[in-house]
Fold this sequence. Notes:
The structure is a single chain. Helices cover 40% and strands 24% of the residues. The chain has helices spanning 40-57, 78-91, 111-120, 134-139, 146-159, 176-189, 206-212, 221-237, 256-262, 293-303, 315-326, 335-342, 348-356, 378-386; strands at residues 11-17, 19-20, 32-33, 62-70, 93-104, 124-130, 162-169, 193-198, 242-244, 247-249, 266-270, 275-280, 283-289, 307-312, 360-363, 367-370. The strands form 4 sheets. The chain has a 9-stranded mixed beta sheet with strand order 9-10-8-7-6-5-4-1-11, with helices on both faces. A 3-stranded antiparallel beta sheet has the order 12-13-14, with no helix packed on it. Helix 6 (176-189) links the parallel strand 7 and strand 8. The chain is globular, with a radius of gyration of 21 Å.
Amino acid sequence: MIAHPPFDAGFGVYVHWPFCASKCPYCDFNSHVRHQRIDEPRYAAAFAREIAHQAEMTPGRTVSSIFLGGGTPSLMQPATVGAILDAIAAHWSVAPDVEVTLEANPTSVEAARLRGYRAAGVNRLSLGVQAMNDADLRALGRLHSASEAMAAVAMAATIFQRYSFDLIYARPHQTPAAWAAELEEAIDRAAEHLSLYQLTIEAGTMFERLRDAGKLVVPDAESARVLYDVTRDICEKRGLPGYEISNHARPGAECRHNLVYWRYGEYAGVGPGAHARLATGTGRFAMSTELVPEAWLTRVEEQGHGVVEAERLSAEAEGDEFLLMGLRLAEGIDPARYTLLSGRTLDERRVRSLLQDNLVEPVGEGRLRVSREGFPVLDAIVADLAA
């Protein structure tokens, strides 16, 4: 794992580009399809204004990671990405080894554009592959073919030293043998990192409507658990252990930006529907911005930022968030930091009960983590410890 001081989780900047070529049926992210041309220079100027606003709240920070997510950031022109990165550098100090990740869909990738992103300052690419066969890609509503996806991965490998791609498992009718073969091929093509997400049916999505109408059947909990175990076994065997419940990497190749979240660090959030956790002289604030892109744009142009909610977190809320994020990690949490944030210690009786049930385990220097047996019931464990 990446070495880090006890309570210093870094400072990240998340940039949300909300536009997509189409809406995937499983997606509940803040993403929007627009058939007219997007005024990128206007949006870039608005991003710069919102960056300036959040930088005023966080003087003296050094940015350790930047993540351009969406939506589909690879629909942006490289010049727009460059302008956003320049604005970040103009308002905060940026670490010499800053990690700058951009999410991309294989359909929106071309060599000239990828080289443009690299020249603009992006040094890590995350590709939304999702499946490696055409039938499942169509079922997931993806616009690319398996061959296009693998061509994009190969192209990324020639331009970026660091890249990752996503796959979704527990898809309809997926068998453990088929998933094992797909995962082996994915690891052959992945240099250092894979994000492997179990398909969940989110409220308000097309998949929810299809499931409720009896037109979509996903693996039951027992079958999904088998697929989860296949995932962990193969990735560990191949040298990409899970460092977080859905993320696997060769040691040292973890996504540093996501570690800022999971280690409960500070991060700015700019763009429509972005979230932030910023510490000021009066406490730690949970902030969110206007969801609708056009409304966000107008709000930023009129008042200098798109923030619509800024809640000062109580000590109890900070402790709960720390558990919710940190227990996703294989490295676990430091109970001393939980005490520092929440003002109370973990309930020894609850911890002892979870230890006896082999759902949590001690790990190095007094840390506590969820066991492999416990990860499938992670939410229940977090709720128990937070009660």
